[in-house]
# Entry
Amino acid sequence: MAEKVFPAIAIAGIGQSTVINTENGKRVWPIDVDAKKLALKVVIPFALSVITRCDCGFSKAIYKGFSEQVEGLRLDDDGNEVHELKVERFFNSFKDCTEKEKKYIKRMLPVDKIATETGEENFYFFTYNSFGNTDKVVRELDEFIGNVMKQRNTDKVNLVPVSLGGTIATAYMNRHGHRGHVNRVVGVVPAFDGSCLAVKLISGSFSEFAEDIIPGELKKLCSLLTEKTRGKLVDGIFDALRDTVLLRSSVGWGAIPHADYKKLSAKYKKSEKLDKICEENFRIRNDFHGFIEKQRENGSEFFSLCGYGLPMEKIFRRDNRHSDGIVDTSSCSMGAICTDLNEEVDVSTSAIRDRVWFYKGMEHEGAAKNDHLLRLCALLLKDNTITSVNDDENFKQFN
# Structure
């Protein structure tokens, strides 16, 4: 008798969910910039800055204008959404989605390749506000899992966190893993311990990378500004996102690696309620070995498929550590030593050292095009035959 296939639920990455402000019907994520409105606010200070060769309120106008552009994502001091937001969701299995829904999901994740072993009727896609409240997202995921188990008449599911979805998966398992509803968590380039990208977004300056950040179609126009003003322009945009959204987002704080969290948390004070959520998420990341042992006792196993051998993208780079360009390899692997690109990854320190596979030179987005990785993911979700990196010679730990 064939082993039962548990339904798999993919937990979307940061750019894979669409969020709508129901008050005005506008899309707030991914950000849909109203270029005309923004231009009207900055045209006069821009002209003055060009004429005088100094910043005549241009960077302040950019900050204010972009703050208004991300206003729909604004959170209150406790990390709750200020506006009535609706996340576009997919409540049916991939097989039962409409053609329009399937097209969207496949653009985010190659479900058709992953579901080759599980069947499309056993694959679901969970979306959420990537800049929202972790407590709310966990509640939504818990409800989603309950509905899937009811639909498929099962008492267990598998989770497939993608990128930022890794932080959501750990938060969910920390709170509800004891229920025993999750058989496996199979991460695809998962940010289990966040990313130094998030550190840069909260505390970094981007002025020195203005030439890399300013879109090509605007470079000629921005070249009329001084180099210093161009730098302030870029910082104004990122500062607006930080001040309006990130500093109050427990999902965002959950993406801060544990090694950086305490220092940043002390620098940017939070409300008591927000701090409580963030501290709970930090405790998970600060002790992955204890966390994984607890999940094993609950009957759940964690696996991870990640990239290595690449530095972080230039504007987010802090050192020479291994990454896939977006997420640190140490984060994907729950603690492998990946501090120097000139040295091999030391997986012995990982909390999941015999259940993590590495793909050299694979960029973050490249996972969706890596047939070897997708095949392994499918087999891990099909049944419990593969329990470690030693079980199938076709899937060596380092690829």
Notes: DSSP finds 16 helices and nine strands in the chain. The longest strand covers residues 301-308. Residues 19-80+206-255 form one domain. The beta strands are 8-11, 19-21, 26-29, 85-87, 123-126, 157-161, 182-188, 301-308, 356-360.
